[in-house]
Amino acid sequence: MPNEAFPTLPAPRAELGGCVWLPRLVAKARQFQTGQLGAEYAARFCDADSVDDYFLRFFTLAKDDLLDAVGRPSDDAALAAWFRALPGVDAARITEWNALAANLGKPGFPMADRLAAVLPTSHRHLDPAQIHSIFDLLEADESRVDG
Predict the structure, then answer these.
(1) 122-137 pLDDT, tens per residue?
(2) Degrees to nearest 5, angle at CA 100 with 96 and 102
């Protein structure tokens, strides 16, 4: 059930064009452009040191280019084709991203300090023994609303 705190978004591990996070980022961009992305999510959309930011930097993609592509009339297949046609985006790079993304927040990976900081504070309602990555955190937190 969508609400202000938890907009309807694809799961972090969902794929578009074989790439995790891309369908979630596209959905956030669409909702951002129409003013339907919850205020908390909109304030952090593509924010520094977020998964969005890591994704954009990994693929050398600007937020404005993403918003432009999402703003054109197109379906997910067209967006996947646009993404895969970007310079430097190929199957090997996507595989590399997918491996990194699944580890965001784990010790020794980007966002580890951030995960350690938010678990006992803003996410203390979650069982820390079940949260090993940023994706685990998002899935557990958002499942409170979805399931």
Answers:
(1) 899 999 899 999 999 9
(2) 120
